[in-house]
Amino acid sequence: MIRISGPVGGLLAFLLLAAGALAGAFVLPLSPPQGIVATANVSSASAKQLDITDDQAATLAITAGPERKLVVNVSGTLTATSCTAGGRAESGQSGLAVNDVPIIYLSTPTPLWRDLMAGDHGPDVQSLQDELRRLGHGVRADGRFGPDTLRSVIALAKNAGVADVRTWTSFPVSRFAWLPAPTVETMTCSLQVGDQVVAGDAVAVLPPGIESARLSPEPRDVVPGERVVVVGDLVLPVDDSGNVASPDDLARLAASPAYAAYAAGATAPQASQGGSDLQRNGAAGGVPVTFRLARGLSVYSVPAAAVYAARGRSACVVADGKPAAVTIASSQFGQTLIQPEASQSIAEVSLKTSQAPPCR
């Protein structure tokens, strides 16, 4: 019998023990980590309630109308102007002077085309009264030019810097320049101080009006519901085809800084039936917008595994132990946004749906 002692014997004993432990590892089953066990046994999940507007980045394709100009109704020498390319002209303010007489910008739905005196009536009178009211003057919009309307006109002119308003007995159209919107951007300025002007001359070129605006392309896979487009501070309804349908909304869009910036950067309009499709750098352009639900929608976020019997947007979940019919709003990253078809709250959903009963 061979005996091995000393350091060599100790090393050999250690190697034998290690080999035994390794062999045992192949024979004995390994226990799974606690985290995996817990995950395998999960049978339900909490439903998280959210309010969404389903914001989508989109583009409004614009069909522009004819070129618009800022025109004066008086002849003489241009003695002052605040016009700048990319600047603004605002209703109720004076932006230029002819023969040292301030000219006041005024926006009305019906362009002002005549002097107005006591007793005059018509759509132009009501348009004037509507704008006076928008500017904060307490006048009744009855379509008839009377003392109250004259007083409001005089107050407006005085605030704009006109010195001889005390002598006014009527509305002098030559002292005003019509704007197509309460605030417009000036793309280019046609005249400078010292130039001679004749009634009907343009002092500035404005962004062209808008004949139509439509989402192109219309975003896909959006949450169903009434929707709007958001352009800066503007919120504009769109119809089911993605069109901004209201003429008033098209006018508001045409007066917006976003549209002015787009129109200023567009190339010369390309002729097309019913207007001009503005194009940028030879490719179809548009105004960037946010396409969203008009009203926020309350939904529940649940794991995709909780949803079963899906047909289109209709589906089922087992909510708080009972089958419930739901509408799928959207799905992403393993989560599904659902809206109960019956008015109910959901706290928990089952993840074991293979044997779940029908919900309809």
* Average pLDDT figure: 85
| Structural Rg | 36 Å
- What characteristic shape results from the CA principal axes? elongated
Report the structural category.
alpha+beta
Cα distance, first to last residue? Answer: 84 Å
Bin the strand percentage.
35-45%
Number of strands: 27
Name the poorly predicted regions: 1-5, 11-17, 21-28, 267-284
Sketch the major β-sheet.
Answer: 7 strands, antiparallel
Question: Topology of this structure?
Answer:
Elements: H1 7-27, H2 34-40, E1 44-46, E2 48-52, E3 56-64, E4 68-71, E5 76-81, E6 87-90, E7 94-98, E8 101-107, H3 123-134, H4 147-159, E9 176-179, E10 183-186, E11 188-189, E12 196-197, E13 202-206, E14 210-215, E15 227-231, E16 234-237, H5 247-254, H6 257-265, E17 270-272, E18 275-277, E19 279-280, E20 283-284, E21 287-293, E22 297-303, E23 308-311, E24 314-319, E25 322-332, E26 335-340, E27 348-350
Parallel strand pairs: 8-9
Antiparallel strand pairs: 1-27, 2-22, 3-14, 3-18, 3-21, 4-13, 5-7, 5-12, 6-10, 7-8, 11-13, 15-16, 15-21, 17-18, 19-20, 22-26, 23-24, 24-25, 25-26
